[in-house]
Structures are given as structure tokens and as C-alpha cells.
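Appendix B. Raw example, untouched.
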Amino acid sequence: MVREERPVSNHDEVHREGKTAGRAGVVLLLCGLLLAGCSSSSVSGDGDGGLDGADSGPWRDIDTIPDDGEPPSDDYPSADGAESDAAGDSDAGQPADDGDTCGDHCAPFSIVLLPDTQYYTSKQADGDNNTYYRQMQWIIDHLQDDNILFAIHLGDITNNNTAEQWRIASQAHALLDEAGVPYSVLPGNHDYLVNGHFKRNGSLMGDYFPPSRFAGKAWYGGHYGTDGNNSFAYFSNGGQRFLVLSLEYAPRKDVLCWARDVIEAHPDHHVIVATHCYLTHGGGYAGCPTDSYDTLGASGRDLWEELIAPHSNVFMVVSGHVGDSEHRLKTSNTGRPVHEILVDYQFEGECGAADSSLCSDNCRTGMYHGNGWMRQVVFDPDRLTVRSRTLTVEEGNERMFPGGQPAFFCSELRDPTATRGGNWYSADPTAPDHQYTFTYDFVSPPSQGVDTEGRLAFIDRTVNSTAAGNQIAPATAMSAGGDFVVAWEDDSDDSDGAGNHDVFVRGFVAGGCESFPDLRVNPDAGGHQARPRVAVDAVGDFVVVWEDDSDGNGVFQIKARGFSADGSEHLAPMTINTVAEGQQRTPAVAMTPGGNFVVVWQDDSRQDGGWRVRMRAFTAGGSELFAERNVTDDDIGERILPVVGVDDTGDIVVVWQDDGDGNGFYQIHARGFDPTGRPRFDVVTVNGVATGQQQEPSLAVSEDGSFVVVWRDDNDKDGNFQIMARGFLADGTARFADLAVSSSSGQHLSPVVACGPAGRFTVAWADDSDGNGSYQIHAASYAADGTEAVAEWTVNRVAAGQQRNPSAATNAAGTLVIAWQDDMDGNGVFQVLARGY
């Protein structure tokens, strides 16, 4: 994750102070797991819609916020410990007593919200009469009289993301630059369009509003990345300190993590979060990003759960995007009030009729662009009130309003029978839809606190930082505290030859924020490295194993390397197999809570094509616990694709795909061993039905030694596989019979399983039930006896393209992470994504 913030040592110079009184308020608006967690071994293998932005995951209501992170600057003083009143702000609205904290700064001050200007830049001619310019000039003209301290653009600056539209916007904001008015900008969805298609890296905003445009301005705090699409800034009124955090359309997870760090680095600031898409009609959460965009990002509900609700100093969220005016009061996890505000009048059209009653077809039709409407937010420190004042800079313009008298046409004028929702709000600009007041104690320092309520879920996020080349075959493992690592194959570097991959790993804290950046596991970048697997101990130290052909001779060895939880090396690269002849492929690894680990793989050192399964174990320090040995007592036939798990005492279970009789049909076999490698229970056949093919086993072992095996089954030999599961006690006796996890229709591949407390488990797989050739990642959860706990759901939010090769990890607390390789844009290049529950 890239952080670029400019530290400022003199806090008083960062804030622009208020000067004179504003206007009085006029209207008062009364506003009123899952069950799965697992041991430390790993397994590998929607755009929101509607009012509430809910999606198909079963844990959607327990999503959470990431853990603590490094603050962007240490140069800002913290608050003195004073806390504001309870969420009701019982003293707000009353004149301040003598000696109240507003002191010499009790006069009202204001900020300005600039909703979607996209049609001013695309439909109106450039020049002084452009409404965008007129809005900027209004701010300048009222700067002193209305004590305007800041202006926030809410996104969709342009309509088509063209150079000409950005030039108009840049010139409009240059008026504020020249007048010394602090402001922030952020991109809306239209600001990313390239030939009508959304491209996350396609916005031209960075060309016209780069960070360098704001460099040296005392009120500018810093930005994420290099393009300035996400930034923070300050304003103040005496000791009343505010931070404005401006976030991109549908912020990505790494952006939310950066934003969290910024908020937590400023506990003495009242925070306003601005983003383009947050609320929708009726005050529900907007479904961002739009399904057709095929991109990752947070919906309004995600933003609330992962960023806003946990922080006590966030008191306001402002957004545009949806043509409406909404105000909703919510209570954060810390018990503090949060005022959510939607303002966007972009569909208001011109109406030059003699009377507003004749303007029934001037919403979303004809020359609509917003009619100059914008929002002024007036803060009154003396009464501790915040007033929403909606106004238009086109008052008196008879081309836009009948007789020049402002009115709203996306209202009862358009449809007298309409109810709230759609583009409906009152036609009267003085109505509470547009003018309202609420109470909030912004004079006292904000309450200080972060409360995630134990929620560790997170939205779909990209794991790999480098987007070039294929990123495939993820493997995931989790520590007892919920921190996790993901390893994968990377094909971004062509210097080692086309198609030759490296193994990378990246670490995350519980909740999905980065703990250490991408690092290459294999020290030698030459040749080909593939099929990484990873296991984590109780404190987060981990081992990665992979099949390695670094010398490019076509013969693979099994390698391992160990790391501390921070990504630093603690075990140098080592070769696991002791016999170098022939092929050594498909490794797997499991680790005890104390860090001892066991590796299994398929071996053809005899070079006769008859694969056998081998295993070897090590202490946490890398010393051999037991020597390399066969898992089976004979070498007849073929044994491939082994997986391994351990319980808390170090007892081992190995599962593999077996054709010991050489008839070409595979069964799933399992065998148990003690920590020294001695057999604990003999080979058992996992699948109850022996006909057809049984392939691709995955294993999860509970802390008590009971275990679950999943595999894909084609017992009817029609070429379509179904996902099956079966449970066992620690001694290898069956706990429940074969269980059909997926439907029998279509194709189901790459099953993985992760288990948790009391034997509960979750299964994930690549699913093409409808037979259209496009796979989604599906999952389902079960109690220890195999009864369904959570019905099948779709893991990946974006359904377009291909989603393959899931991996999953849990801990004893029930935290679950699923990773997979994803080609949502259909360009044939995969990225690795992960989602937390």
C-alpha cells in the first residue's frame, strides 16, 4: 500500500480560521459466523443492488473494520482528552453559557457542497456564463460575509472524462485557487469513463487536479497513491478542528485502509467523509459500484461498516450520484451521531414557462443540468447547530425558472401522485427536503475511540499489487488472531522466460488491511515455480512450500521457506525432498500452533511414472522432526495430489487421490500419523461410492483431530463433477456419510474446505451449475454432523468473467477468508482476490 502524506509541523498553520457571522437557520428537520473457524493449516484450491445494498454473502451483517495501522504523520497534536456530550448533544441548540469553549469563535461559519457538475462541463458552453463558473464565483463573493471555510466537490466533475470537460472544471476551480479558497475534489463514476466504459485507471482527474496543484497549501493534508483521487484536507474555526476525507467512487479496500489510518491519526478532528456514491433514495445505501462496471469497490453499506461506524470522530458523510436530497441520522459503533447527507440536483432541467405549474416535463428531459443548485452547510458554534441551506446561483434566470423564481421540477410538479423515492422531492426550495437543521457539538473535541464490534469481514479486495501478467493459484492460511497470508503464482516478470512463474506472498491483518507488502518467496527468479501452499502458526509465523524448477531443466524439487508474521525471513529456503532424481510435484503443508510443520508431495524419483506420496516433518526452527517417508506401505499404482492437516497436538492426517489398482479410476484415501510419523490409523477410503472418478481432495483438521474431506465426484461418469464431503473422527472412523455439497447439474471443480470450532466447516468451489462455461466461487457451511448451517452462496461480488481455484482459511473464532483467481473483465489475465467474513 502506498501512502503519500505531507507532514505539517505547525498545526495552527494547517487550519483556516473563521471570521464573520453567517445567516440564521430557518427550518428544523427532526431526525430522528457464521460458525466456521479453523486451525492454522491452509487449503487452496455483486454489485450491491436495492435500497440496502445487501449482497448474497451470509455474513453480510457482520462485516467489520480493519485493525490498527501506521498513522500517516506523527506531527499533529492529539486532543486534550475532553469529550463531547452524549449522542443526543443535549446542550446543542441552546445559546452557549459564559466560558463555553467556542470563546472568541462563536460566529457562524460554513462550507459548500458541490454536487455533480457533469452537465455543466458537457452541455454548457465554456465561459463566464457557465453555471460551474458561476458557482465558483458565488463562493468567492460570499467568502467573507458567509464565512466560507471550505468547498467539497462530490464527484462526477465531468460527464465523459474528456480533456475538454476537465479543462472547464480546472478553469472553474482556478477561480478558487486564485482567491485562496480551500477545496477538495474526488472522482465520480463518470470521471472514469473511457469511450463510455468504466476504467478504474482511466480517469483524467490526476492530469488536471494532481497532488502538485495543492502542494504547499497549508490546509492540504495528503493523498493516497500518486493520482490524488483520494485525499484529505483541513479547516478550522479557532480550536474547532475539522478534517475532510475525500474518497474515490466505490473506494477499493486499500483506499479504505489508508482512510482508516488518516482518521485514527487525527483523533482531535471532527471528520467529514466525502464520496460520490453512498446514500440512495429514501436514505438507504447506494449499490456501488454499478454491476455493469465489473470493478471492485465499496458500496455505501460497506463504507459504513468498514470505515465510518467504527470511528467516534466521524460525524458527517456527504455524497452525490443519486438525484435526490436525503438526510439520515445514524449512531456509530461508539454511540456517536453520524449525519449522512445526499445532495444531487443534476436532473433539474430548464423551464422558462410563465408559471412553475407548467414545468411538469423538465426533469431528466430537455436541457437538464442541475440549474445551479448547491448546498451550503452552516455551523453555529454558539447554538451547536448545523444548518443545511440549499441555494441556486441561477436565481433570477428566467430561462431556467419561471419568472426567475427558483423551483424544483423533479418533484410533485412532475408527478403529483409520487411518493418519496425516484427523483421526487418538494418543489419548494424552502421545504425541509432542502433546508434543515440538526444539532451536533462540534465545539468540544470529538470523543476518541475505535470500535469494530469484533467484526472482521471485508469486501472483495485485490491481493496482488502488480496487475501485469497472470496472478493465479492462491493459497491462504490464517493465524489464531485472524491475521492471514495469501501466496500465489505470479507471471508479471518476463525476464525469466515466457510462462515461467514466481511465487509471491502478501500479509494482511484481520479485517483485510495489509500487514506486509507483496514479496517474492523464491530467491532465484530464474526458471519456473508453481503450486504454492502456506501454513501459519498461532502467532502468525508461516511457511510457504512450492514446486521449483529454478534451473529450468524441467525437473521439479519441493522447496520451503519460513517467515515471521511481519514478512521477514526466519527460515532460509530449503529443499524438502532428499532424493533429487525424477519429479517432485504438488506439495502441501500444515503447521501446529507451536510452529512445527509437515510437508507432503507426490514423488516420481524412480522415474517410472508411478507416483507415490511422500512426507517429511520439521520443527519451527527448521530441524528435521522425522525423515522423508512413504505415506502408504506399498508403491503399487499411482497416488497423487496429497493434502495434509494437523491438530493441536501434532497428530497428522494425509489425504490423496489414489489409483493403487491401476484401473484408471481414482478413489480418495486417507491415513493418520502421530507427530513422529508413525501410523495412527490405517488407510481408509473416504468416498462411499466407488464408481466413476473421485478427484481433487481437500482436507481440514479440527483442533481435536476430527477432520473433513471434500472432493469432486463423477460417479455416473458423465464428465460433470459434483462436490462431496465426508466427516471423520480423530481415529479415522466415519462421522457422517458422503454429503452432496453442490448441485448435481453443471460442472463443479476445485473444492476446498476449512474447519473451525466443534468440527464446523465451510466448503468453497468453482461453480458452473448453469453450464454456461463461466465459473463463480460458491460456498456453503455445515455443522460438525454435516447438517447445513449456511446455505450455498456466491462469494465473488462481480459475476462477469471467470472465477477459479478458490482457497479458504479460518480460525477458532470463526473468521473466514476465501481467496480465488479472478478475470472479471474477461481479458484472459487473472488477478488474485480475497473476501472476508
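End of appendix B.
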